[in-house]
Specification:
There is one protein chain. The chain is mainly alpha-helical. It has one domain: lambda repressor-like DNA-binding domains (434 Repressor (Amino-terminal Domain)), CATH 1.10.260.40. The chain is about 60% helix and about 0% strand. Helix 3 packs across helix 4 and helix 3 crosses helix 5. The N and C termini lie far apart (about 45 Å).
Length: about 100
């Protein structure tokens, strides 16, 4: 059986270049920063669910509010590093490791 090749496909990297510009451009940088915030919210939500905690329980453990946890998980709020550390350490019993790339 012969496989059909779709010549109209583009790679995800090419798609990002077309939609947001090349890496280093202001529009692309904004997209990548927003995406990192989105991933952070998903990570916190997944960790919370794995620990079988509600948003309210997590908020109580780390001294914040349920609505703040919800905003973080839904990418609707910026998060301070100190708050992130408290959520990870006190709320979820984890360790936060950071890395910087340039």
């Amino acid at each position: 059986m012969k496989r059909k090749v779709n010549k109209n496909l583009t790679s995800f990297a090419d798609h990002l270049d077309q939609q947001y510009g090349k890496r280093g451009t202001p529009k692309r940088n904004a997209y990548e920063q927003d995406f990192e915030a989105f991933k952070l919210g998903v990570l916190i939500q997944e960790m919370r669910e794995r620990k079988k905690l509600t948003q309210t329980q997590l908020a109580t453990r780390c001294g914040t509010t349920k609505s703040y946890i919800s905003r973080i998980e839904n990418n609707a709020s910026d998060i301070r590093l100190s708050t992130l550390m408290r959520i990870i350490q006190k709320g979820l019993g984890g360790r936060l490791n950071l890395s910087v790339t340039y």
